[in-house]
Amino acid sequence: MTTASNIVLTTLNARYMHTAFGLRYLLSNMGDLQNQTQLLEFTIQEQPITIAEQLLTQTPQIIGFSVYIWNVVEITQTIALLKQIAPDIILILGGPEVSHAPDLPAVCDDVDYIISGPGELSFPALCQQILAGTPPAEKMITGVQPKLDELVLPYHAYTDDDIQNRLIYVEASRGCPFKCEFCLSSLDKTATAFPLTPFLAEMEVLLERGVRNFKFIDRTFNLKVATSVSILTFFLDRMTDDLYLHFEVIPDNLPDKLKAILSQFPANHLQFEIGVQTFDPEIQTRINRKQNNDKTKANIKWLREHTGAHLHTDLIFGLPGDTLDNFADSFDQLIALNPQEIQLGILKKLRGAPLNRHNEQFQLRYNPQAPYNILSTSTVTFHTMQRMNRFARFWDMIGNSGRFHHTLPLILGDTPFQSFLQLSDAMYQRTGSSWKIALKRQFELIYLILRDDDKTDSAALQQAIESDAKRCQIKGALVFSDVSVKTKQQTGTANKRQLRHQAAS
Of 94, 230, 311, 443, which residue is least crowded by CB atoms under 10 Å? Predict the structure, then answer.
């Protein structure tokens, strides 16, 4: 049973397994107001009216929302309900989506206060003023940047339920010294590390509480190699069979000291998120991305050959000046390095990101609705962008899923991007969708498409498909015939005729 709180901190996570790390920082730094503050998390799959009801159960005077690109639509709907039902509640917004005035979403018109930037100090101060009856006159409040060694760390705010069922986010540093224009971290002046000793003490407590999956959110984990080695050594000394660590790393900074510790980890205990984004030097210069491509490729190759780490690499399509051909070149170069995953991101407009200075010159046209995905540019048509959206979806389904271990090399051949684009187009042509295609049907469609292309030996293809299907424990025999497709279409037509006949009678 919940108890009433004067202050409620809330947000809508993309999934239940995610946790609102920033709100735990706010809760931990509420000072004298902490006993009056409640943290409630929801997901974007829940109904706004249900969320409003649960928030109002707390009878709060103040509700603070953390707003991101992925939840702004649902938060807007929830706030509209709250303003109708309980207009006296003070509503405060914070988060990246509302931190870059005057480029603000419409929901900002319906709330009382907006905190831009850090909130650990500014949110408690604002609540103190409101509860004391001396609220500030200005609506927009610039968040005060805290000194990291003065913050109360948030890890005690993870509940036992969080530890059992959710991702546990941690951070050893904040900020980023690099100025890649597509990223909001480019607005940071530098990266600053938390004091290492108290940070590792908190990690020790989390380990004792049963945490085995640590997701570091540092933008540049391997920026200061000595600190990275200390953290990795800490976990290596406490290695268990189920310990798993996720880091975001700079791809061209892998000195020997770091290699030495990484090579000591057993397989399947490390995951590295490696932002390549593009190998095109001209685009890199245009968006102020400093990346040594030769070192990047050498380091990814070394990680694959000398460690058991899982490599999650990122590419972005739609950057200013991007074309299908130069993106294909980046994709093919990355495929050759054999990472376990290639995340194909479609460029999105982030409020406040320096990349927006290119909008007119390169005719960057974005979806006006969140998540503000790119629709077309001066060098990429809307039709091509749609093809690439489907390519990314099918790549997740087939390339990244791990289900097509034997079949994927036959799909990619000597021209990986062009070959997979052809498969993507053919899959969409046959299904009319890039979503909700049954796994068994995926196997059958891939076989039919590649067989008809006459570039793959049918016997080798069938053997690879059947081997992968067995690994995935596909039930029922695969049907390697167009008859099944035609029969399904004919059955659908017959059913429609029967329904029309029943309606007429």
Answer: 230
Mean pLDDT by 10 residues, the chain (505 residues): 78 97 98 97 98 97 98 98 98 97 96 97 98 97 96 98 97 91 85 96 98 96 94 98 96 95 97 97 96 97 97 98 98 98 97 96 97 98 98 98 96 97 97 93 95 86 94 89 43 40 37
97, 65 contact by CB (below 8 A): no
Q: Where are the domains of the chain?
A: 7-146, 167-356, 408-505
Fold identical between 7-146 and 167-356? no
- In Å, what is the CA distance from 452 to each residue of 92, 446, 448, 479? 58, 10, 6, 15
Q: What's the residue count for the chain?
A: 505
Q: What is the identity of the amino acid at 170? A: V
Q: Looking at domain 167-356, what is its CATH homologous superfamily? A: tm_1862 like domain (3.80.30.20)
- The fold for domain 7-146 equals Rossmann fold (3.40.50)
Residue with tokens 């010294």: 177
Question: Considering the entire predicted model, what is its pTM?
Answer: 0.91
Per-residue model confidence (pLDDT) at position 412: 97
Secondary structure of 80-115 in HEC code, one letter for each residue: HHHHHHCCCCEEEEECHHHCCCCCCCHHHHHCCEEE
